[in-house]
Amino acid sequence: MARLGKRFWAIALHLGVVLSSAGAAGAEGGGQAGGGQAGGEPLPEVHRVIEIYDADVVVDLSLSSGAKVGSVIELWRPLELEHPVTGATIADEFLIGTLRLTQVRATLSLARPIGKLERAPEAGDIVVLRQRGKEPRAPSTVSAVPVGAPSPSTPPAPPSAAPLVTAPPRDPEADAVSRVLDEVKGKGARARILAYEKYVREKPNGRYAAVLWEEAQKLRRLVTLEAEATGDGALLVTFLAPDQALGGSPLSIGVELVEAPGALLHSRAAAEVAYTTTPMTKAGDGYFTAVIPGGRMKAPTVEYFIEAVNADGTAVAAAGNARAPLELDVVNPPAPKAPPRHGAIASISTDYANWNLEEHNDYVLQTEGFVGMRFTDVGLRAGRTGFGVYRGRGGSLEELDEQNLEGREVGLTYGYLEAEAGITPFVGIIGRTTIGLQRTGVAGGFQLHLRLGSDLGTNLTLGGEVLGTVGLRGITQLELATFPKFPILLRTEVTNQPAGSTAHGRSTSGADASTEQGAIGVRGIAQAGYRIVPQLTVAVRVSYQGRTIHHAGPGIGGGVTTAW
User: Fold this and answer.
1) pTM above 0.90?
2) What's the mean per-residue pLDDT of the chain?
């Protein structure tokens, strides 16, 4: 194992040299871009002591600053004093020794003194990393300026600050490799092998891919030799750790091992405290697989590690361990949604209204049927199409009651299209267009209603109708859903139907038939339904209508509705 450790530190040093070379090149380029000494030579970049950590001095030098392990840096102590005679503030820096960098990381470095320092290092001291081939110089020099003295033509440099060198641009690839090295720190050779190989697979064309792949293979050979020499057991050959899995779905995990008669998978969900051990099944020469059941694949994560079992029954960590398990993100799949279901309806009804019971010369018989579909609450709520047969007889009160003429025959056979738009779930607008045939030719009409309340529950409808030469009708309708099994409808109408407009030409009934417009009357309707099954409803209705107290009569009707 000592040989393996030395080899790893050699690898780490080699990687550090590669990374720092890129950073140093950037630093030198940046120095040339910034200010410099006479002759255009770049000035050193000034950094600080951050903390004294036991025997180490923590400084804010990094790989991107051009620092590398073994670099010598100068340690300067800034001083700022008040002159006892002139009262001027005097600032300067003094060299108190040199340090050697022992570790260089992405943001900080560790250094130790070379020889004896003139003063003990303190946080805030200045450290200077010299560029190659440059003579040492103090970070900055500030002249004393008496209090109240006039400003010189050229202002002095700020206290305790050297001319800054433009920071080199960050190298994303170097940063990525540094993160890889940080992640595998202290996790053993096997973790480093897997991390290096994963980086190469993700960035096969990167500048450091060849180096990392070479080091991974060398580490594999070293681990193999060490295992053979010490009998440590099986060696992990290949394991591609999954990054993400679906919650609720079984996950199969496979691994390739050498010289291992068996393997174990230990896993636990986020809500579990202890690991669940699953023996892995041999799936070929050197290959083992195991399945984590779907019931244990729960968001947000599942932790797991794999152990190889040697011939003597000893378990050896192969990928991760109990203290540093591998982590798998678990994502719950979107819950399936049932496709939207649009309810359909079909209905047929008939209605008879006698406006003059004594003479039977003013009446209406109307039959309507339709099919429709409901879509949504807001937007196009429903669409319906249907037909109607309208037959009746009527005329003016003078002709019917005083002259005792027969009522004028009125007839219309029509079809219609109707749409309902939901402005809000509570407010809707219903529009209908009608076209049909009567004795004298083609006639049309329309309806327009405002619905307050859901059409699936209790609601109030206000509107009106224009129907060919049949006449006009104003409608107020209340549908009550208080008793789901017994739907109730209450309706009032104000209308001049059935003979609402003058006939085109004389009636075929002869000279004794009415030819004048019908008079306005009022009608009241009450309808009660019975829902035999949720999909089938039957209804009966009664009505009473009249144009005067002596010109009135009853009515009756019924209907059947089915929905699916």
Assistant:
1) no
2) 82
